[in-house]
Amino acid sequence: MNDVTDNWNPDDKLDRKESADFLTNYLIKRYGLASKHQHPDTFVLNIRADWGFGKTFFLQRWAGDLRKAGFPVVFFNAWENDFSDDPLIGFIAEINDGLSGHFKSKKILLHLDEAIAIGRKLIKPVSLGVTAMLVKQLSGLSLEKLQESYSQGSESGAADSSEGKSKSESDISSLLSKYADIALKEHLNKRETIKLFKDKLSRLITTLQSEEKHIKLPLFIFIDELDRCRPTYAIELLEAVKHLFGVPGVYFVVATNLEQLGHSIRAVYGEQFDSERYLKRFFDQEYLLPSPDNTRFTAFLFERYALNDFGTFYTVIEDKIYDPTPSDQALFTILCDGFKLGLRDQEQVVGALQAVLLNWPTGERIHLAYLLFLIIAKQISPFLFQQLADKQLVDSSKFSGALSTKLRENVKFKTRDLVSKERGYEVIERNVLDMLLTYQNLQGRTVKNLWEQNYNSIAFPGKIGSAVSQDCSRTIPQGENSMPPISDYARRVSQAGQLSNVMQKT
Questions:
Q1: Is residue 109 one of the residues assigned to a domain?
Q2: Can you tell me the distance from the alpha carbon of 464 to that of 500, in angstroms, rounded to the nearest whole number?
Q3: pLDDT at 502
Q4: Cα-flanking dihedrals φ and ψ of residue 306, to 5°?
Q5: pLDDT above 90 as % of the chain
Q6: CA atoms of 373 and 187, how far apart (whole Å)
Q7: CA distances from 87 to 126, 224, 273, 425, 458 (A)
Q8: Are 81 and 228 in contact, with CB atoms under 8 Å apart?
Q9: Is residue 9 one of the residues assigned to a domain?
């Protein structure tokens, strides 16, 4: 499968093609080995990853690879079909559409048509509606009215019980008997239909294997977005996969976050219900999508949230030091790694950053390092964030102490500073802690104080102070105790944090 590259580039920001190639080789050789020993099997693989980490992209591109390689592939988006009460309606329709365009042989298409025709008979009959119609035809009353009449008749006492039984109860008994007959017949018919459907599907696979040498097996059916569906819909779809379509030569790939789906199922069946163990019985194996490289994941997030549309950030890091990584993305990676943020935390930080930037005053410089620091602080510790916002941590020892358990020790970043007149400018490694402390101290000063400070050196941290003082207005009346723009960062982050909290709950 290594020859298929154009299906991924340049959009594979998380380097998922490597996983697709591994799984393709594994599944094809697994099926080939089983077929060689006359034991072709069915298989259900669960692709696990958190929401937002590329499951849909991965499945779509991988399915594209398999199609190009000559395998019959069906792709079913469960979330898009969740409006239906019966998952088989959309599922069977997708299988028909996906395969009918793949096969050219009339014999193969005939087998497919036969299997689909039988499969449609498995779609839930509206049993209660049929029963209600039968009741109305026999009695002239709706099922609800008849039940109400029966209840009233039972409560009327012994005085007219014998007379009541002769008509009302006799009619109801007859109707319920007919309903039981219908239900039993329906159950037996369904069992036979399932067997017939699996036989037809097996015949389709057998014919493909014996007569259509240009078509490769197994047949792949991809199911995406299952964890976003209603719990009952998700379970019924998994039941169909396991019990209806489980025939040799059909391989399923189901992408889902089992933990999240488990939460939804417990909300329906109770917190004591062992949902994850129940769900795992539907799968033969699981594959956890590997965590992407931090630099690649940062680039992925910056593109997803369109952060490059907000202009140039002031990062303290000069351009090209971390080539080919832009300085803003390099800074984000350094801070996230320094504060030990997981992928989910990183995405939530970027979401909050976007919310802040969408409300950013036009023309105002964006000090990305300090803004990110405040957002990260709010993400990992609301108490720490409040201390920073209240300017309680301007003392070096208190600041270092507050971050001692939050920030990895001795985290550094590269920046270009003036070392001396003789040596000129050089790339120097500086402590992230010192940079953050500089910003925290500067945001606590007044504009007048910053104007009076002589930031005439580019050496760190003087250049940070110089950049902050340049942002201050020069038209403030004398004596007014104004604050620099970075003093408003905490308020903006707090506002975005409220929006972020709402988004996390939904």
A1: no
A2: 29
A3: 42
A4: 55, 40
A5: 31
A6: 62
A7: 14, 13, 23, 66, 65
A8: no
A9: no
Q: Does 280 share its domain with 315? A: no
Which residues 6+ apart lie within 8 Å of 12 measured at CB?
Answer: 61
Average pLDDT over residues 320-346: 93
Asked if residue 245 and residue 365 are part of one domain, the reply reads no
374 and 414 together in one domain:
yes
Among residues 242, 263, 288, the one where a domain terminates is: 288
Same domain? 146 vs 280: no
Domain holding 135, by residue range, is 127-184
pLDDT digits (tens, 9 = 90+) for 298-328: 998 999 899 988 877 999 998 889 999 999 9
In this structure, the number of other CB atoms found within 10 A of the CB of residue 357 comes to: 20
Instruction: Convert 288-347 into a string of H (helix), E (strand) and C (coil).
Output: ECCCCCHHHHHHHHHHHCCHHHHCCCECCCCCCCCCCCCHHHHHHHHHHHHCCCCHHHHH
The pLDDT score that the predictor gives to residue 44 is 93
**Number of domain units in the chain:** 3
Backbone angles phi, psi at 39, to 5 degrees: -135, 55
pLDDT digits (tens, 9 = 90+) for 271-303: 888 888 888 888 999 999 988 888 889 998 999
Asked if residues 448 and 455 have their Cβ atoms less than 8 Å apart, the reply is: no
Tell me which of 86-90, 306-310, 431-435, 460-464 is least confident.
Answer: 460-464
Whether 310 and 283 share a structural domain: no
pTM for the model stands at: 0.72
Q: Look up residue 457 and give its two tokens.
A: 């050196």
